Amino acid sequence: SQLPIRSAYLNQRWLGGDEAQELLEGWRAGCTGFPLVDAAMRELKASGYISQSVRMSAAAYLVDYCNIDWREGARHFHDYLVDGDLAINGMMWQNASKCGIDQWSFTVSPIAKASDPTGEYIRRWVPELRALPKQHTHEPWNAPADVLRRAGVVISDDGEGTYPARHPFLHDLHAARERALAAAREARATAPPREEDANGYD
């Protein structure tokens, strides 16, 4: 489960250094600044289980937006999931990072309001956001200052707040995903010719 099924992706350029380590540690701890991802990672650590939809959001955040090596995520999930299966876990992470055999163009947003439309899941696992109005639960950074103040929420990246700020390059999710896709395309270009349709299916 440590080798991509498409060998060209062994050459993929992942985010590295202190920045990658900081993002990875925040993801493991459920302190990314994205409430749905944080809820998923906290539930995983507490219970050993998370539903498929939020697993996909947590995985997409790490590999499809942060561009962190899928093997880091696979190892963490395998260590914590009570229903973990080495083969399934490895392939699902490869699919999330575009080096597997699934649809090239598919991703899941780390905000993914459809996975928790009422915000109840986030409020359960991210209690520091519990007092926020429902419309701001998934994206607290968009809440007006007075709403945050009344809810007792201070978003900060210096450790002094009640909830972590998003990493600066993740303020623009589209641009972040494009950077990760560019790295995947670069690796993919080194592969032997193969038949693919416009959506990336083999």
UniProtKB/TrEMBL annotation:
<feature type="domain" description="Cryptochrome/DNA photolyase FAD-binding">
    <location>
        <begin position="5"/>
        <end position="184"/>
    </location>
</feature>
<keyword id="KW-0274">FAD</keyword>
<feature type="region of interest" description="Disordered">
    <location>
        <begin position="183"/>
        <end position="202"/>
    </location>
</feature>
<dbReference type="GO" id="GO:0071949">
    <property type="term" value="F:FAD binding"/>
</dbReference>
<feature type="binding site">
    <location>
        <begin position="83"/>
        <end position="85"/>
    </location>
    <ligand>
        <name>FAD</name>
    </ligand>
</feature>
<keyword id="KW-0285">Flavoprotein</keyword>
<keyword id="KW-0157">Chromophore</keyword>
<dbReference type="InterPro" id="IPR018394">
    <property type="entry name" value="DNA_photolyase_1_CS_C"/>
</dbReference>
<dbReference type="InterPro" id="IPR005101">
    <property type="entry name" value="Cryptochr/Photolyase_FAD-bd"/>
</dbReference>
<protein>
    <recommendedName>
        <fullName>Cryptochrome/DNA photolyase FAD-binding domain-containing protein</fullName>
    </recommendedName>
</protein>
<dbReference type="InterPro" id="IPR036134">
    <property type="entry name" value="Crypto/Photolyase_FAD-like_sf"/>
</dbReference>
<dbReference type="GO" id="GO:0003904">
    <property type="term" value="F:deoxyribodipyrimidine photo-lyase activity"/>
</dbReference>
<dbReference type="GO" id="GO:0043153">
    <property type="term" value="P:entrainment of circadian clock by photoperiod"/>
</dbReference>
<dbReference type="GO" id="GO:0006139">
    <property type="term" value="P:nucleobase-containing compound metabolic process"/>
</dbReference>
<comment type="similarity">
    <text>Belongs to the DNA photolyase class-1 family.</text>
</comment>
<dbReference type="GO" id="GO:0005634">
    <property type="term" value="C:nucleus"/>
</dbReference>
<dbReference type="GO" id="GO:0032922">
    <property type="term" value="P:circadian regulation of gene expression"/>
</dbReference>
<dbReference type="GO" id="GO:0005737">
    <property type="term" value="C:cytoplasm"/>
</dbReference>
<dbReference type="GO" id="GO:0006950">
    <property type="term" value="P:response to stress"/>
</dbReference>
<dbReference type="GO" id="GO:0003677">
    <property type="term" value="F:DNA binding"/>
</dbReference>
<dbReference type="InterPro" id="IPR002081">
    <property type="entry name" value="Cryptochrome/DNA_photolyase_1"/>
</dbReference>
<dbReference type="Pfam" id="PF03441">
    <property type="entry name" value="FAD_binding_7"/>
</dbReference>
